[in-house]
Amino acid sequence: MAKVANERLRARKLLLDALKMPETLPALSLADWELLLRVARRARVLGRLESALHHAGLLGDIPPPVAAHLRAARNVIKHRKTLISWEVNRLLWALKGIDAPLILLKGTAYLLADLPPAQGRIFADVDLLVPEDRVREIEERLVERGWFKTEIDPYDDRYYRVWMHEIPPLRHRERGTEIDIHHRLLPKTSHLASAPAPLFAAARTLADPRLRVLAPADMILHALVHLFLEGDPDEGLRLRDLADVHDLLCHHGQEPAFWASLVPRARALGFQRPLFYGLHHAHQFFGTPIPPDVLHELEDAAPAWPIRKLMNRLIPLALLPGHPDHPSHLAALARWLIYVRAHWLRMPPGLLIKHLSHKAWLRFRGFRKRVDLAQLDLKQQ
Amino acid sequence: MILMAAGRGLIWQDWGDVYLVYQPSSAETHVFNETTAQILKCLEHGSLSTATAKERTEAALGVDLGELAADDFAFATMRLEELGLVESADDVSTAQ
Amino acid sequence: MNVGDLNRREFGEQLAGDGVALQFGPFNLRLRSDLDSFAAHAHQLYEPYPLPETTAICDFHVQICAPRGLRRWLRRQACFGVDGQFPFAPYTVEHAFPALEWGINWCVATRAHHLLLLHSAAVERNGRAILFPASPGNGKSTLCTALVHSGWRLLSDEFGLVRPEDGLLLPIPRLIPLKNESIDVIRRFRPEAIIGPSFLATRKGTVAHVRPPLDSIRRAQEPARPRWLIFPRWVSGAPLTLEPMSRSQAFLMVATNAFNYDVLDETAFRLVTDMVHACDCYSLVYSDLNEAIPALDELCNSMDR
Lengths: 381, 96, 305
Prior knowledge:
CATH topology of chain B: Outer Surface Protein A, domain 3
Protein name (chain C): HprK-related kinase A
GO molecular function, one term (chain C): kinase activity
Structural class of chain C: alpha+beta
Radius of gyration of chain C: 19 Å
Largest sheet of chain C: 8 strands, mixed
Organism (chain C): Candidatus Accumulibacter phosphatis
InterPro entries (chain C): HprK-rel_A, P-loop_NTPase
Oligomer: heterotrimer
Distance between the termini of chain B: 13 Å
Keywords (chain C): Kinase, Transferase
Distance between the termini of chain C: 39 Å
């Protein structure tokens, strides 16, 4: 029992130390590297470690078998970055003549705006925020130019369009990349629903004037909302999303007036609770330097003391990947509870959702059913 | 209409029967026949009107002027545009 | 030290405990299982495979185990897992061994992106290799098995592992899975071939595993330079044809048949270009191994001069 507890602690320490102090990695033993690779892969931060080592010029000091894994991660990440940039390029081509504000979100924004979280991050889809009254026009133009809509049941499709904050994903008929078009950051049904107009007003234009990203505070708030309200029952909360927030806080924190504006902006958008959790746990795991008066200002956004204590236990359990050989029932429970909470925050029980079962909702989020290993086309992986 | 080359850093391989071209900005590998390849090559030195591009392609292919079907040419340029290898503009005054 | 240096009991105990580390070419695997029947098959079929140094890291941590919870007692099942995750539908416990083998393929195909992964069989002789890029159903495993029992060394029956730094093929001489009629074909072709038990009614029909000759396993750390690209197709009753193939066609077939051509961007384009330039490319149609093997021997001998 003690051995298992020790192993779990070891896995946790290896991961957090690696993320906070990558310069210590060359000194790691092979046995430690073996565990770290597994845990980092689970948390999808392998690329982040590779990037940190690359920038510090330390890759040559890493044992060759370990370096092979890091190189593999780097190759995948580099390829995906190209796919995402290209998809944005093609998107702009397809939308020529449609003069709608396009705000890039999440990874797409980090990449196109050349922000620190883009390094070592694995990219999946292109995420865009557009005004609700332009969604149809944009979608139709994309369909004309070679994209197709994801096939879903007409009732689900309508549910998606009426209640959710995004339309079903679009995919180009030749390329695989998915485009997720959002018209707000959260479903209309959420407790935390906030109107998108202030986001558009504050958005910043990139070097290419057709593209925008959220203002610094908004970008961080969105990342936190996405982190805490879009969990997954298996994976829990995404540690790499918190790492992104840490990067953004450090980067934008250098701008004068950023810190002073953060809490007021959170209140204006109704996101003060996710900010509360985000700042505390970013500091806890990554040592993010946060001005004390900002934390003080945020105290009244804290939940009631019993809930605060509970979340202090649950969030780390749901955030950290645990030891691959010694899964923790407690962590699995925490992940599930956090997921249910996120689900509830997005869709309060009062809403009648007749046919949209739990599974269908998971399908929207790309939750993978158990596939048959024997029939799997390994080339599609 | 004006056509401009848009592919950056393309890597060409001439295999005799077809060209295989790697496009770094999209990470895609394309297979081009002689006609498509010549369209791209004639745009390498600057933008051209559609009509001029067609004439130069025909010259490069060693065929008579007007022999290349207009539909085929239009299809090829449309496809190249979709792949991001060519850009088109309507305004004549924007050409060099 | 090899798997066979552990007796059956030790092997089973380790497998059920911390796991047994196995070396397959460039990859070290840590394998765990609590299934007795699986342990028996593994001990028999993996017997000559080396155990890596205790200090070496393991690249994949896989397991094939009874499911947790109630299902353990209801139907006897085996679940394939990697790093504590079980993303696949369970198998019946009788199919644990083939499931594990497929699982290892999945690990390689989804993780080894520091290499170019071609979907190809590969064999070597006199320092030169033939690659057989092929889709499933073209008979490459059967052909490959016949060749390695006719004087060729097995590099792989599934993965052409190309090292980007120098374009060399890295061996991964694992068991070769044969399906349905191919099992009897090989038994007739080479009665002395070591073939494991037949697993009936799997998702791919009847499957049995051929253990490659010891020489192939012992030389698993010797890379080879590709010299021929041969695209095989088994067609019942067809006369033997071995015809040159255009290089552009060969390029496209290799690239579209690779597991991760896309992922490696420009590196993949250059590696496949170099390989196709350096190799003679042929398409092969055959129905009889006793015709195909000598034809390939002849081709490669004449090229060598």
